[in-house]
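Here's what a typical entry looks like (PucR family transcriptional regulator):
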Amino acid sequence: MTTERAGERDTDAQRQISATTLRRLERASGELAGASIGAMEQRLPWFRRLPADQRANVQLVTQTGVANFVAWMQDPTEAIRLTAEAFRAAPRDLSRWVSLRQTLELVRVAIDVFEQRLPELAEATEERIRLTESILRYTREIAFAAATSYAAAAEARGAWDARLEALVVDGIVRGDAEESLLSRAAALGWEPSSEATVLVGNAPSDDPPTIVYQVRSRAARVGCPVLLGVQGTRLVVVFGGTGDERGDREAASRLSEAFDEGPVVVGPTMPSLAEAHRSAADAMSALRAVVAWPTAPRPVPSGDLLPERALAGDPEAERQLVERIVMPLTDAGGALLETVDTYLEGGGVLENCARQLYVHPNTVRYRLRRVAELTGRTPSNARDAHVLRVGLAVGRLAKARGLW
């Protein structure tokens, strides 16, 4: 049977309800609503625990629904108005403290009450069946109306959360460390005291829902919270710490799969979200400079791009090079600094370096091992040699300017 024919059958059944029964139904509407609320309090423990104002709002929805049922029975041509009136009369945050499952439990209790009370209102025996059929159809529409209302509320909350999340990520990128940023992040479920790392690269598509799904699905696999924002063609992801350095590297690697082709840069891990702007600043600077290293890994730590960032004019990269390369070698004595400088200038030939310094090759080997221990860079490695060479050059320039 088609929906149209079913509707015609329901209308015919309603027309067969006598005026006497309709008047009884109208007079009993208040009693029906009260009996429904009483049954809810008796049968649903969670309903009894609700504050008085929240129970009153549920009662308002119930009373409006009963009144609409009476109006529908009196005028068969009138559409069911529960969605338009009962749920509109309820507070907007109704779905926050009464879940969809609980709402359906309320509907089920109301159906039981109606099925028990309605037959008593029928003037004739045949009207009892018609009233029962009508209330079943009406409560079915209530269930659909509730589901629609909750879906709309979820969509609205999702849109609001997306805007709030974009504001948080934008604030981190711009360098905000205000309390409002932390409170917004907390509203999104982020623990403000947890570690935070920023990952930046090209957005994979122009469809935000697709991007959100790709990022969040990968974050769920590694078990880390994320905040993300799309800024033009750039995707910014802030992810929480996993508890160990290896786990953080694994998280960065998995999340980088959600980015489009091209370089992906991961900033340093910060101890809290309040300091995440430092990770973002390093990552953004590295993303601008990564073009100078065509063979950079993906993702590449921003600290591995210090030479390229310094050449691009990033003062923070210059400072880090001085602190990580020049100062440890200077503090260890001039021999190490002289040795690594001579070794690099001589093309990395150990014997030539030893001859120029008038020392045994084993002495050069020992000194180069000390350089690797102090700086984390092995002079015999091509990439590390490049970092050392640029670091030493930046250090000379900084010393000439009297910066250290």
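The longest helix spans residues 125-174.

More examples are in the samples folder.
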